[in-house]
Write a structure and sequence with these properties.
Elements: E1 10-12, H1 22-26, E2 32-35, E3 38-41, H2 51-55, E4 61-63, E5 76-81, H3 95-104, E6 109-110, H4 113-127, E7 137-138, H5 143-152, H6 166-182, E8 189-195, H7 198-205, E9 217-220, H8 221-232, H9 246-249, H10 256-261, E10 266-270, H11 272-283, E11 292-296, H12 312-324, H13 331-334, H14 339-342, H15 363-379, H16 393-402, H17 412-443
Parallel strand pairs: 5-6, 5-8, 7-11, 8-9, 10-11
Antiparallel strand pairs: 1-4, 2-3
Length: 444
Amino acid sequence: MPEQTRYHSVRLDKDRCRGCTNCLQHCPTEAIRVRGGRAHIIDTLCIDCGECIRICDYHAKVAVTDTLEDIRRFKYRIALPAPTLYGQFRGLRKPEYVLEALKQVGFDDVFEVARGADVVTRAIRERLRDKSIPRPVISSACPAVVRLIQVRFPELLEHVIDIRQPMEVAASIARGEFCKKNGCKPEEVGCFFITPCPAKMTAIRRPLGQEKSELDGAISMMEIYGLLMPHIDKMQSNPDFEPATRYGVAWATSDGEANAVSPERSLSVDGIPNVIRVLEEVENDKLRDLEYLEGNACIGGCVGGALVFENNYVAKAAIRQMVSAMPQQHPDASVPVSMLTKYPVKNDRPFEPSAALRLDENLVVALQKMNRMNQILERLPGYDCGSCGSPTCKAFAEDIVRGFVKSEMDCVHLMKNKLRIMAQDMVTLAQSTIDLGGNHHESE
């Protein structure tokens, strides 16, 4: 198997892996193989969605993020909490209690990513005026979904909105405002996202649509939750707090973005298998009347991320309860259009398709490999059982063509059939020998 060469937050703990095939069946891009009794992750196919982390009974899949020690390399540190963080604390009345608590654990300032979502909402609504963008326009907020499109649906990349993720916009504003207020240099300030999922961490190290991320790292929500808990109940309201709108906070849950951007002709889909089915509909040109598509890799939206503490349904209910008590003001009214030019909100590079599914750079060779793969596939049983260490028979045939597997006999069903035939041949040969021996005695 090829070694991992790109940065990925999702990693394999080889000491814990038992070589079961559970993760094979759940990986949406078929990025996992089991060889030599251990799982392997193909880095060009992995989208860091975290599905393998959720379903691994042995906790052999982990997400690597930054720690609070990492923020100390900067003179000034800003925390950028995803609105999902609010849903981790049951009975939380005001977001500012969480923001103030973050200052107690080592941050000099805090900036709501929900405010970044407000700016992104306004930017997307302005961008949707351009009717040349193919419909439905697809959200770029979930990096796992964008990478899924790059790998499995590259022809749909032209549908993906060219607006930055809320965490990136929030980081630009946070650093700019902090430097202006405190008279410091941008390089002295570290911006750290409080993340609910590994895909966001990977997006910081390997940006999507940007040459360089505005963020300096990401800290797992799971890690910081326990540190914040002792401080939450002691917090007081901050009179200088500039809250995000209810629409920005609602981005934490599925349909929050769609309701803010295009409430009448939008569709919100959560869970990777469901996102794949809807993208297939878009690919087949069956949803052309749809204006906007919000796709979330996690069930319930970001509240269902692999790095959250609270149950996603409980967190979603908590966010909705908090949002219901907030003013009705829409980002169109709260975000001046000047913000869209004052800070970078558009991508500075296009989304590129992934070459992971190409069998070869040379078209002729690729066609030859495709023909060989189809020939192998015809000989395979089609059970997609995963016993060979590949997720499906098609993936197994592809692994043979790519040289990841040496023989078709790694398929237990083909091997069993071959052994049965060999056993029958041995019985036939033995019977023939007996018959020949008997005939020889008779002739004497």
